[in-house]
């Protein structure tokens, strides 16, 4: 058997590559290295802009050319860094040497020693991860989530008045509307996504053990915490003043827990839609050329929602692991975070893939009005709740002397089907006021959805 040509190991880089396009721009090794180069360049420019250690502010064209190194970062640079790291066996040191080479090429050798000045590797790494994670969430994950939320709200609004038999504990229960059930997920998701959007992306820039020791040794006259704060915030991040060698990653744990929570709400959405499809409440729209089963031609399988379920589970498993492990580091630091953080793209990638599948799945289902009406009309006994509640109100108002209305309706309806006429006859014989009797006599399962339709308004932005 001939060996295969080199293949992607992860389905995110193979079968599903198109669905997660955009994440590699930020959460790949190349994206991380570009961010590292950016941090190194901006730190050097900060030092020269403030003319520290006798340096001179670079001319505008020199600064532009140096920043262009980041803007033009491409495959040749990726390959060069790989070659440097093969020698250094240290990724951040390779970036430092790469930047030094660019300074030489630009004729800026007089400031070459300010490259990576007073930095530990984690000073560069933590800022780079914060920048790339922020960009990936902002530019890729959040837009997909908002597309899905909007798609769900469109369905909530469209079907706000379509009655549907609800099921609690899998049993027929007080009706709702299709739109209200979609609106529940809209409301849940919007709340959690707002927390994701409020994430504070923290950065440290304080040396080998977070004490500014090398900085003070180089120039004790400077306010190094103020300089650190100004530099970190200039990158669009929040400054963390108290750290060990590493930024403690608490903000990452918070972010991953929130994305994982989002995943689990979406998982609930998928299992509900899958169940409604199996009950016939939603029909699946045949897609031209697709096959539901290799042997049963009639089948249309709810593969979008099943695929999404699996990817949401994978994403949450990885995100939960990241959140649990990143917040612990031995003493001043250990390297477990280095390996762990390299899987952030995989974790978020499975969530993005799930979002793509759910969006596509929503476009392939339709409400089955006939089946909904049939199920409602076959379960008149669910009006027992309304009848016993009205009787209790009538007893309280002095218009009825019925004892234990709940027991009366339990005797009539529990564990058995009750038809429309049987229920109306029962209502007509009740000892209650005529107005209440008239309301109950006119009630149908399809008309017993309360304020479900207007509750959809609460899901509007």
UniProtKB/TrEMBL annotation:
Pfam families: ASL_C (PF08328), Lyase_1 (PF00206). Residues 57-308 form the Fumarate lyase N-terminal domain. Residues 329-448 form the Adenylosuccinate lyase PurB C-terminal domain. Pathway: Purine metabolism; AMP biosynthesis via de novo pathway; AMP from IMP: step 2/2; Purine metabolism; IMP biosynthesis via de novo pathway; 5-amino-1-(5-phospho-D-ribosyl)imidazole-4-carboxamide from 5-amino-1-(5-phospho-D-ribosyl)imidazole-4-carboxylate: step 2/2. Keywords: Lyase, Purine biosynthesis. Coiled coil: none annotated. Its EC number is 4.3.2.2. The keyword RNA-binding does not apply. GO terms for biological process: IMP biosynthetic process. GO terms for molecular function: N6-(1,2-dicarboxyethyl)AMP AMP-lyase (fumarate-forming) activity. It comes from the Bacteria. NCBIfam families: PRK09285.1. Catalyzes two reactions in de novo purine nucleotide biosynthesis. Catalyzes the breakdown of 5-aminoimidazole- (N-succinylocarboxamide) ribotide (SAICAR or 2-[5-amino-1-(5-phospho-beta-D-ribosyl)imidazole-4-carboxamido]succinate) to 5-aminoimidazole-4-carboxamide ribotide (AICAR or 5-amino-1-(5-phospho-beta-D-ribosyl)imidazole-4-carboxamide) and fumarate, and of adenylosuccinate (ADS or N(6)-(1,2-dicarboxyethyl)-AMP) to adenosine monophosphate (AMP) and fumarate. This is Adenylosuccinate lyase. The gene is purB.
